[in-house]
Amino acid sequence: MTAGSGRAARRPARVRPYSLTGGRTRSGHVLLVETFVASLEPADGPVDGPLDPAPDTPGARMPPEIRAIIELCRRMRSVAEVSAMLKIPLGVVRVLLSDLADQGKIRVYGTGRGPGQPDRALLERVLVGLRRL
Question: What residues have CB less than 8 Å from 109, skipping those under 6 apart?
């Protein structure tokens, strides 16, 4: 192994999250940064549709990023929290969450606010999260 090849092997993959979406950048659901989502299923089962790495393979398993999203969303989270906590770009998280909602693996709850009124608790949680960064 040469010195240059060792460095390339340690570099984080920047293309991987976008490959999970098949290059898609739009989602079927309206998922704002403050939209709440929560898991409906455990993170260890098979996945159907575009998230499945090999849909024709019996017992195909979820990619680790999808499993992490479902596990993280056992507690209600905002789209922004999922993106920040898993360090996956927001656009990718929106597409993945939309796919999971279509499959019935997560539920989309909306923004948690009335018309024209920001949710103070959510804003405080976002502020706390930003301060942690």
Answer: 35, 36, 37, 38, 76
Q: Are the C-beta atoms of residues 33 and 79 closer than 8 Å to each other?
A: yes
Cross-strand bridge partners of residue 1: none
Report field, pTM of the whole predicted structure over 0.90? no
Cβ proximity of 105 and 41 under 8 Å:
yes
pLDDT one-digit tens code per residue, 20-41:
777 777 777 888 888 999 998 7
Tokens of 54: 């090999």
- Please state, in angstroms and as integers, the Cα–Cα distance from residue 7 to each residue in 3, 12, 15, 27, 47, following that order: 7, 10, 17, 35, 34
